[in-house]
């Protein structure tokens, strides 16, 4: 257990991943093989396979368009939605500016109410802390509330290697766990599966399941309910994440739909919460804004069915032992980046995933991180260091739908562009691409050179041999375009040339 | 008004008829068009691919080329958005504060074509004639960065002979995305396929938009499929009249099969 709080202002890079243009001051915060923040393949390669999966495309297309419509409807009902968004953004920005002070206050308040606070520099430390805490209770199994932080650090695997079984209790997380699969969406981890596939997983893996189980949603939910109920009732330890932590009272909050969270947060004797340090809000009043923004943006509901809040422990009521593990895992390094730090404002609603045309087609697994979609493309590379996730900032057409949908107005396209530059500027050797862009930059900044370049480009028309389009079989990198799209043959004359020829010196 | 035309690097080099149409349209509306010969590129491709340092001289050239222009008009939502939202930032980051202030002032006088027509000139009926079935794709940067809204539709609705058909899922990106179209060619193509399916479902002869880049992508796909539906820039449609159809587009596809 470490007791020194992270002070972003003083040590912006410690602990931090190596960052371009700065000195490498410490160990990477999310070492390979522990945090689930990196894929084993670059995005374009993983996406290529996902795009061929017609069932996946159909499942995702159906699910995302349904949630998109629900969200648009309930957001449209709020006349001051834009003001709420701006309030959310401002609250997050001011909280991040003094995160160190708020965290120390949170620790003080949690401790004053009988809880214990632990500080984890990275995934490894967090896993070690939680494992030790579970072992101290003597339990060999835990129930879990759906949590992105514990997915990020790979807690289930860490517990398993210590002989502790973790039972996911959120329906979608359960589906993913039983199917020996990985989550592909922040809110709906099993969004890539349809009912028939879920039925098949339950029949294959759920002990004592009714062999007559159909793919009717109610029957599937009842099967999961029966399976989970046993585990809730015998569990002695629960592990959760947190949507928010209120510094002034040391209160933790979990927002959910199914009630499984409420079971985990109230029945077991011991509760362990793993929370990213950025989830904190200074005061109860701040929740007013976020509890309006979150459900409408995530599930498309006016209000979520269950909002559980707890402050420390209460004798005779609920868990009698409470531990809060505050996780850095690269967040302090993100905070040090003036442009990128806005990614820490994310409240994990997943609205950006549901509106993203790239996510809708490639699915979440292509991103290789537990954080997929637009927010994942800006968060994962920052948590790991851009060079460790260099393909993700390019996994976007910069269409801007994510920025419009984000309830705290994170300018995701601008961060993507910024991270692309961080990647380019981190290269030690000149890549062929960089050489081409540098040459083009020289040409485009000197009209004489530019006109020569254009004239050279216009020679491409001879390859077309009088046809209006270029040949489809061009060598790389042009082939990346011409494999699926015709390329018009360049004209004999550019517009500026033609204009100058026709109008002479009139310009 | 004396209007400086920024053709954009892509239009100038690959589809010059779009800039010519823009110039003829503005002249027909009684304005003087000038084409600063020093113009090249707004710098967006460099910035968006991560070459923000290399974009600095390109932006500087742009600011130089258009210095003193009363108003700059460009037939591209994306390039105008870059001029509005990126140029000054890129210069400031490079420590070019003076130039950044100039770029900002220039951006304030720079308009995307449909915004210039509707907001500055106050016209929606530009006197065009275009007897075709047309669907309109709102390009992402026009829609979400410049917020052109329904201005292009107002202009199209006033075109004589034109049948405007609504494009399903119009606000979904076509998948072009600049260098995204080659760096993530498969995903880009998957997005394009859905866009083309929606375009073809309208049975339009022509798909139009305010960006030649997105149209080159959509048109390149439609042409590869021998679909018969062609892409034509908004400027070309607005420049068309009974007497003087714009060069090479009323009867021929912009990118023929």
Written account of the structure:
The complex is a heterodimer of chains A (507) and B (257). Chain A has 507 residues and is of the alpha/beta class. Chain A has two domains: 366 residues, Rossmann fold, CATH 3.40.50.10420; 63 residues, no CATH class. Chain A contains 22 helices and ten strands. The N terminus of chain A is likely disordered. Chain B is α/β, with parallel strands linked by helices and 257 residues long. Chain B folds into two domains: 119 residues; 107 residues, Rossmann fold, CATH 3.40.50. In chain B, α6 runs antiparallel to α7 and α12 crosses α13. The radius of gyration of chain B is 18 Å and the shape is globular. The N and C termini of chain B lie far apart (40 Å). The C terminus of chain B is likely disordered. Chains A and B meet through α1, α15, α17, α18 and α19 of A and α1, α2, α3, α4 and α9 of B. Chain B: This is L-lactate dehydrogenase complex protein LldE. Chain B: InterPro entries: Cys_rich_dom. Chain B: Pfam families: CCG (PF02754).
Task: Summarize this structure briefly.
Chain A has helices at 43-51, 54-76, 81-97, 99-112, 123-137, 148-153, 155-161, 171-178, 195-205, 217-234, 260-266, 284-298, 331-335, 351-355, 357-362, 373-384, 401-405, 412-426, 432-444, 447-458, 478-482, 495-503; strands at 115-120, 141-144, 165-168, 237-240, 244-246, 251-256, 270-276, 280-281, 306-311, 321-327. Chain A has 507 residues and is of the alpha/beta class. Chain A has a six-stranded parallel β-sheet with strand order 1-10-7-4-2-3, with helices on both faces.
